[in-house]
Amino acid sequence: MSRNLESPVQTQMAVSALDRALSSDYPTKSRSEVRVNGWKRVFVQTDTGCVLAIQLDRGDNAHTVKRKLQVALNFPTEESSLTFGDRVLKNDLSTIRNDSPLLLTKTFMHRSSSTPCMSPTGKDLQQQRDRGGPIELLVCPSRCCRTKQLVKDVARAIRNGVDPIPANGGLGGAYYFRNSKGENAAIVKPNDEEPFAPNNPKGFIGKALGQPGLKKSVRVGETGFREVAAYLLDYDNSANVPPTVLVKISHPVFHINEGVNCANKNAAKGAIQAVSKIASFQQFIPHDFDASDHGTSSFPVSAVHRIGILDIRIFNTDRHAGNLLVRKLTREGKFGNQTELIPIDHGLCLPECLEDPYFEWIHWPQASIPFSEDELEYIANLDPMKDADMLRMELPMIREACLRVLVVSTIFLKEATAFGLCLAEIGEMMSREFTGMEDQPSELELICMEARRLAMEGEDCSTEHDSGDEDLTQFELDNEDHELPKEPSAHHFEFKGRSSRNPLSKLDEADEEEEDDTEEELESNEGKLACPNQFNKRVADISKLSTSLKGVSLSDKSRQLSAVSKVVSSAKASDGNSNQSGLQAGNWGSANDKLPASVSFVKLADMAPETWGLFLEKFQELLPEAFRSRKCRATGQRAKQRLGTSCQF
């Protein structure tokens, strides 16, 4: 692979040099004075991977920070944006926590090969050490007590000269950090060494931090906090996710790609200097092998179920056998072969939109066994809104789009288990069928498409009703005794005889010819199986959509899928034009740039808060009929083999 001219270099903490460079323009203070006056520190990372620590005063704003960075980087920052997750920081920085990781990105689209990277180049910035320790917690969740001691042990080993070992597997950079005894203690994954990231050590480069990555709905440099999110969401350590935190860590072992314009050619020869990174820090769990090296028959049903429950909640797009560690619990020579499963590598969970998840366990026998009473109670006690609020508090850099996927998938899990579906059935409803080198929408996506259409119609009707009220105001004042009929709220509209403004509504027209036969077949099956059909007429479309792709011949499916593709393409083009305005509707979306049009059949992030609330209501209304249809179709049928996108050749 050819070397990218825009690769980052010298990912380096420049705190001491930065303080000296700013001494003339920005008076410095002692550490005690800093604490008295309420200063706090942030770690600013450029889109090329350079990390700098900056002390902030209470009166500092984003413009002040960018001026400091301009002095440190020797590069103009006026055309750059300082972001924190979804938020573009402009004025007040009081809500930014101490030691928060911020991202400095360029706002223009093109950069010539002669344009210097935003990386330290001054003599004072060459290979300077960070004033902090070798490891510092950036995000310290309430559950990180176990990890604090582990961090101390690893930091002590680094000071004693115990070097980490680079991991050979995987597409990104990963390192085994050891304790003072030389034992593997933690696995560290720098965010600028992810696949396609600027400092990737295995040749997979080409994108800046913040751009769509290996999965289009997961941005480069953002897998680390997803690892932390998976650990935080694993309540009571139900799925056995190892403790994980986000850290700033410094060591010479980390990889740096030397770019043409950004190479530090003046660095002292032979000098070994620590390179600082922002990374996920996960406890290393001793194990015997992974699930790809062992038959699944010995895996406990409860372990498979609990990992599956977590995977569904976080919409895991990469649960393959290689990231399920297996540890034997029985000694050799004893009867039985009991094992323990440890799920790792959750960097591709919580995507920014619905896409194709990948669940290795979907065809394991354990996934078809009904949930136990304890597991059903665990699921029933889940609260997706509280989960989202918890992640906002513990991981303030997480994007709102990720939280919306969490909410949708958790609601889906709760309603499906309450209806009586098993883990395999839930996973299949979330997974896409792969036909003719094209994905077709999953049953979950079809439900979301219909719920979005209904929500958009409800919003339109509400808008029309509000404008009508303004016209009637004077009439009501003049006719106080006249009682106007009350209109239903936006959450209870009947959408009969009304055409949707959402392009996805054209699905009904495209499938019109096939729907009659499909409906008759479905009604016949329902009669034989005694499946109830109490769904309201205004949401009957979802039953037609879901069954039209499942209960017909392959040739019929191809014709319908072609119609779906055309409509979805139209919808994506429409979404692309309206995405920016939609994101500005709430403060949660101000920094979201548009994802590629091919990411998803339906997006969640571009809905305004009111539309989002209406969408969730319609979504829950549509689920019972979808589950009934699923049960009717599944009776007497064997599960179909599927080829997920993680297995394409």
Comma- or semicolon-separated keywords:
16 strands; alpha+beta; 649 residues; disordered C terminus
Describe this structure in words.
By secondary structure, the chain is of the alpha+beta class. It is built from 16 helices and 16 strands. The protein has helices at 15-21, 31-36, 62-73, 145-159, 223-233, 301-313, 373-380, 384-394, 400-419, 423-430, 443-478, 506-510, 512-529, 541-548, 554-583, 609-634; strands at 40-46, 51-56, 80-84, 87-89, 100-106, 135-139, 165-166, 175-178, 184-190, 244-251, 275-283, 289-290, 324-328, 339-343, 433-435, 438-440. The strands form four sheets. Strands 6-10-11-9-8-7 form a six-stranded antiparallel β-sheet, with helices on both faces. A hairpin with a 5-residue loop joins strand 8 (175-178) and strand 9 (184-190). The protein is globular and about 65 Å long. It starts with 14 loop residues before the first helix and ends in a 15-residue tail after the last helix.
